[in-house]
Amino acid sequence: MTALRPVPGEVRVPRTRPAGELIPPDAAPLERWPSLGWATAGRRASFALAAAVPLAFLGLFFVWPVVAMLVRGLTDAAGALDLAGVADVLAKPRTWRVVTTTVVQALAGTAVAVVLGVPGAYVLYRRRFPGRTLVRGLVTVPFVLPSVVVGVAFRALLGPGGPLGGLGLDGTFAAIVCALVFFNYAVVVRTVGGFWSRLDPRAEEAARALGASPARVLRTVTLPALVPAIASAAALVFLFCTTAFGVVMVLGSREHATIETEIYTRTTQLLDLRTAAVLSVLQMLVVAAALLVSARARTARERALALHAEPRGERPLTWRSRTDVLATTVTGLVVVGLLAWPMATLVARSFRTTDGTWTLDAYRRLAEAGPGTGLTVTVWQATLTSLTTAAVAATIAVVVGGLVSFVVSRRPRSRAGRRSLAVLDAVVMLPLGVSAVIVGFGLLVTMTRPVLGVDLRTTGWLLPVAQALVAVPVVVRLLLPVLRAVDPRQHEAAATLGAPPGRVVRTVDLPLVTRPLGLAIGFAFAASLGEFGATSFLARPDAPTLPVVIVRLLGRPGTENLGTAMAAATVLALVTAAVMLLAERLRGDTAGEL
């Protein structure tokens, strides 16, 4: 019998999937709608343009400065490759001690964050209770707090005069690990919780019906099913821990120096570009391994969610369940003791003097500048500069990240096309793993000539560009899962009905990413607001950002400067928290998880 073939011009309805079902990234292409020639050409042109813009942005402002810095550090005065100098750096015990410290601190922070974050994911994503949305927002705030603020908060808690000052933890390995967990607790809660809320509860119910205890169900059914999400979260946390610059710089000492802080010291204080370049290469290798694990774990997580796109299995929180009691107790202790206590101590100490008197003097000094403070502008002026710069950086990050998400979410038929998109996705994540110090210094060195007739170093545009580089990966991770969930046949159907590429995007993609886009904007704004590594090089002396001002105040002697620094850190924390709580409220349940 001859197989039936479609009549030319005939529209055949493709087979459908259940509503809400996600399609795995590596799924075989389904039957396609026939496409008109002009529509195909238009889509290809739009696709090429959407890919060219982020590639040009990353190539000009990230790849070029980083490569230029590496070349300067790995060559001699004549420009020839100097491997002997590289060998000298690798032979120094200090180099490997710094690398070992970085990896050990990252592993410790990752392990503790995962152990504490899984119970939090259970409480906040599998159980319902009044105020859950507010708690989710509060848990997310530490992740986007500027690292300088977190360092000051833990110094206020653990340092002399702090509530835990008598324990002698200030500047220790334990203090740094606690601060790393403070930052990354939300990553585990959001990643594991978002996955957990979509697991099919019937497997657990069947196990309980067969007589398994709740503990055994958790051990034998739930935790094995959560492995992809836990692995994905752990890889991300490890990545963030290895690049924690501000926390280690404020809390640590030379004994606890990481690759990031050592690069900063070698670059700014010793002008030892060779050692900085070699350390950057070592950092890239560590980050590349973390990105590889994260990508594979994320793919496994997306495959596991292919049949369950909607949240399921939520039940009211009850005190009759031992699991609920234990998970709620652990989560409460973490939220109050690890997340809220350092910030509350920071706020309290900004209102108190060394003799215990409550006063507003520190906040009055926020309006002062001059030789007495060591500042060229007031803290309020620096705050306005930070807000303006972060708004520009967030706009750039959302545009570039949105284009990357649009391109990477597509499913080309050819294997070469799919591999190209996978490479683009990995390249976009690299700014999270490359030292911001190298990026900032590289931009300062390479942007000596005008770009399109504009000298970016004198206009102030270079700073928001550098901050946007840090925010782009976060935007992509939030928007990409939502765009990947769109059935490609919707695009094909709209194109077949005559819709041009721009209208297809407006009518199919944009309605789905509207709410996640609000969360992405909030994350991008907050990440830009607190960026310090590249900002320390690129901020102009007459227009410093708030994190730069805080570090300057911390570096000056005197209790008044310390109090002013704590007041400024409180202001920065409140602004960041307000942005994230607003973004979380606009989010709904449709955004991707980190």
From TrEMBL:
Keywords tagged on the record: Cell inner membrane, Cell membrane, Membrane, Transmembrane, Transmembrane helix, Transport
PROSITE patterns given in the database record: ABC_TM1
Membrane topology listed for this record: Multi-pass membrane protein
Domain ABC transmembrane type-1: 99-294, 383-583
Pfam families hit by this protein: BPD_transp_1
Transmembrane intervals: 47-67, 103-125, 137-158, 164-188, 226-253, 273-293, 325-344, 387-409, 421-441, 461-480, 517-539, 562-583
Family the UniProt entry places it in: Belongs to the binding-protein-dependent transport system permease family.
Protein name: Iron ABC transporter permease
Species annotation: Flavimobilis rhizosphaerae
